[in-house]
Amino acid sequence: MRRIVIIGLDSFSHRWLEPLFSRGQLPNLKRLMEEGSFSLLKTPIVGATPHNWASISTGSSFKDHGCTWWVRAPGLAKPLYGFSSTTLAAEPIWATASRVGVKSILLDVPQSYPVLWENVVHVGEDGRPDSSYRCIQVSKGYLSEDLYEEYMRRAQLAADPLPSYYRVLAKAHLVKVRVQEVRGWEGVGMGGLYEAEIPIYLEGRKYTAATGEGSERAIAKLYLLIRPADRIVELYYEKRAGARLGASKLGSWSGWVRYGFTVEGGRVEAYFRFKLLKLGDSGRSLHVYFSQVYPAKGFAHPGELSEKLIEACGPYLQTPTRQQVVLCGACDVYTFIEELEYMGWWYARAMRYLIERGEWGLFYIKYHAPDFLNHLCAYMIDERHPLFDSERLEEGWRLWSRVFEPADEMVKIALEAVGDEGIIAVISDHGSKLMHPFYMYTTILAGRIVAEALEREGYVVRKPGGEVDWARSLVRPGSFGFNLAVRGRDPGGVIEPEEYERVRLRLIEILRELRNPVTNAHLFKLVCRREDAEALGYGGPRCADVFVWPNFGDHLELEYEKVTREDYAKIGVPDIGTWEWPVGIPTGAHEDIAMLIVRGPGVKRGYKCKKLYSLINVVPTLCYAAGLPIPRDCTGGVIKEMLALEE
Fold first, then answer.
1. Where are the domains of the chain?
2. Domain 1-130+359-433+587-647 classification at class level
3. Does residue 426 contact residue 597 with C-beta atoms inside 8 Å?
4. pLDDT bucket at 157, cuts 50 / 70 / 90
């Protein structure tokens, strides 16, 4: 068997290649294309990160692998988290490798954790791009009362239901702190200094409810000493001179802090760093950004590998940032880029460390930074967005390149590791594009539109506070659609089995009639029974009773020459921030075209496929080229067009 290296770039668009290559960026990826084959890939009509990567890794569709963000199958008492390996129903390529005695190295690949297989070295988690499973606390901005209230006032101006969206972001990533004159410190001069308490919360999914909602528990209290005259803040674990953890000068990072937190009765050593972003002349107006707080151990398998990687690569943060962190005002775009940059170079160093030590047959990494980058920063490189500045276009591409350079280094490491004898693949799970604000607004509003329509029909009931009580309703959220609460099948089911089909057909009629209040287009492109969705790769035991294909305006950018500030104003978003500090809603969205680059023996050189293929064609192609058995549940075919097959 030939060795296989898979470098997954979440959300990477083929449209970025030419602008980057023409600016001298990504030379190793360019070489890979010149020496290999390239293909565009059509993604599933519904789905994103967990669904698409599961399709890539198994060569099968949802009907067989059963993964989406939250799997809400008919008859299931509790939803299953779609990134977990325990949810994946089809065999992935690393399980196939394990089955034939081949060792795999996996870095933060979706559905790869918990580790269930022999011959697997694992680093990271299960590829989730939201709140990490093991983290102590997600990244946050600690703001003085004046700056915090400024953001919340902006949020209240947005059209309903956007204020609730803003409140969710603020709850996750903003903390209001009280800045006051210092008091009660030991060994610290008091003149002209201020202080603020910094609570640290326990928020990793390992410690919170299955719903993913953040914890309200502060597990530690740190103290910020503010020196306005020096433009510096210092962090302490106690109010005494000898308890100093680190310091940040305005606009600069602190060093890495390693601190032991008390978590569920034990002590967890974790790393974090912080950066002073704003400081008023008086010292009372303050904005300090804290990175994710992440444990120093437990992020690698076998266990002793964690400390070795920290020694070789630096502290590990599974999700140092994401677009929501900036959009809610927790940090500026430059800090965001620095966080993504750190994430990328850490993975590149870890890749080299792991590849150069020991035998292996499959290396697979998923790097999520391109997705975060496009969601936040599409305005930098797309002239149709109102924040676009032609005079800063090159600066924008330089910032983008800083995020992609680590990925190019990964390609270089792969080329050095396998030479001309191995198979190297660079793959994205979907593409990226500009997002029209109507799309985001409708996506948030759609849930209310559906709930109100079903309430009128008597299919849902509400709690006294007005929230939908799904547990007592006839219709409930499902995987890619809606489930019916059937007696004898579903917990609390109320629909008699003989009434199931009649109610289901009526539900389909209701959903088909719903329209987008902004564009007047139908809210769904397709509504059908789950059996009918099997032809599209859906259906199966985990699909909802009624399958829906949303039409929330994901192609609106094609209908408008430009996205204007007036478009934002129509949904009650008068302030979209600045080039350095965008706020509100994302500027980039997913596109349904991914890409694949493959290089190796038997692969055509400098070839671009003429046909459009699917995500489920990737793994069978790589396995065929490498001489590895195809995963057991694979339904995709080999892309023979890119292979130099003998006639």
1. 1-130+359-433+587-647, 140-297, 438-558
2. alpha beta
3. yes
4. low
